[in-house]
Records
---
Amino acid sequence: MPGPGKEAAAVMKPGLDRNSLFAVPDFRRLWCIGLVVFVVRWLEMLAVSLFVYNATGSAFLVAMMTMLRLLPMGLFGAFLGVWAERLEQRTALLIVVLVSLATSLVLALLAQAGALAVWHLAVASFINGLSWAADNPVRRLTIGQVVGSGRMGRAMSIDVGTNNASRMLGPTLGGVIFAGVGIAGAFWVSVVLYAVALVAAFRLGWRRGPRTAPTDGVLARIAEGFAVVRREPRLRGTLIVTIIFNVFGWPFTSLVPVIGQSGLDLGPEAIGLLASMDGVGAFCGALLIAWLVPPTAYGRCYVGGITLYLAMLTLFALAPQPLLAGAALLLVGLGGAGFSIMQATLVYLAAPPELRGRVLGILSVCIGIGPLGFLHLGLLADAVGAQWACVVSGTEGLLALALTRRSWRAI
């Protein structure tokens, strides 16, 4: 099968500006698929959180819904990395999009019939988590192959910036739809958006060149990926910071609707707007990073980003009124942009080219440790309330970051 062809080769030539990435049709298609996935993710997460909280009154169960989306990363991330290496990448991407579309369609039909239950959402969250776990070793790996290593940082800035923009649109849209037509409307919107992504995946022109069939087993190939991580201090440090973020930082997003409703006394539309402030800050941060941060500063941007994130999530939880809470979430997003853009970029650049799929799969495993954080945060929320649970988690994250400085300073 043909390789990246003239389009990808053109984008790898020096001297092209940042906008030249969008001149490559396959990058546009991969970007479009990512945009759909990101918007649907945030839209559904908010709608599901509101549905579950209104149905059960349990902050713990709300946190568990998001935890179930992350669980497949820890369980299957490394295997998905090997699977992605063996399967033609366009085919793998089509499978991922089709599974997501089918899941949202089933939920839409159940909700339309008035038969939707919390356990349906739990199962669907786990299935969607499989698609999420495949994003790094499938779609983002393909982005790197299409644009080339020299432009991976810029491509990730655009991709993560799109994710952050979706965090402005997704929660706001989810809150408005939930308030207007209920959760069924949210899932029908998801179905339509996934259909757009499916068309983009079908039109993808990239084909990975032929590879020699592997003679070793799946477990041996996974072990080889872990051995590379152990040998390379930059990879090891990057993955340690990823674990800290996903255990102590990111889980707090599941409780934003709970704090908005029970702590700040907001309605669904206002909760959606509040949750979108994280995305506003992250989108602005992504733009600044794309234009101002040189490759030599990627490591500092990564560690500085998580530090700001953890500090500001604590401030958000303590905010006595919506305006201050929104400002704190704006800064949470700014820090999150630095972390999330550099996460996949640093791993991609530090890993040997022939092992990138496996190492990106291991990155998904580290992200997938997040369910421990959601379990920890959910139990804390039921014990001391959602606000103080976030304060404790953010403080623990800053302490963990300080204690592991010797490990991550290599990046």
---
Amino acid sequence: MNRRVLVVIVCALVLSACASYLVYRAVKTRAAVGNAVPTVEVVVAARDLAVGTLIRDADLKMAVWYGAPPRGAALKPDAFRNRGVVSPIYEDELVTESRLAPSGSGGGLAATIPPGMRACAVRVNEVVGVAGFVVPGMRVDVLITGLPPGGNPVDGPRVRTLLQNIQVLSAGVNFQKDREGKPEQAQVVNLLVAPAQAEILSLASNETHIQLVLRNPMDTQVVALPGTILSTLFGGVRTPEPVPSTRAESAPAPVPPAAPAAAEPAAPGVYNIEVSNGSVHTKTGFSRPGGEQ
């Protein structure tokens, strides 16, 4: 082979190898630049944080977050210190503003109450509390049982759905004192209600028997229910109560006394005169006007 041709071939191979290497480096550099994801350190939970927990320094830590941090995240722990937890936060989970109570509201149950709402405590037992299945976050209906004011005792007590689709804030055991001053356990459920509903629920808990009914959290429909009377459970029919008339009933007209019957004229008086003359007897009758005797 000609030496000149060999040199040309070697130079071409070297140049092509260099060009390929340069193209490979350029593509790799561009790909690395395109795939680079910015990182930032955000505040996450150092342990499981229950509802009502007041956050301290030991409850938070920093972790690397790839990409832009989500809305409500903090880059420093100072932003979340001394804030109450309103939604459960688990270890290594991102802490955001929506999971915490406003600054200055503190911790505990009060921090979980939204503005304009109230937490009303209801004392229940295992039956009323749906055998322990009433837990925070569940939805319940409140039923009351009792004899309505002015109701007919013959019909018996009545049950009525008082409130529907009420959220349970907390459920637990409190220690209260009985009549003798001894401590006893009492199951208490705190319900999230409006101020007007709190008044209704407070009156009902003092004057009637309360029953909680568990419902599906996805079922938010409120149904109008008439209530049930004890007499209807045994097939009885409630007799309607008489409704007083709004207008005065007129008294019956007095019956006029019957006119005395006209006295019939007395029959004229009749006189009979009998005359005996020996064996001959003669009888004569005559009358006088006016029936005088």
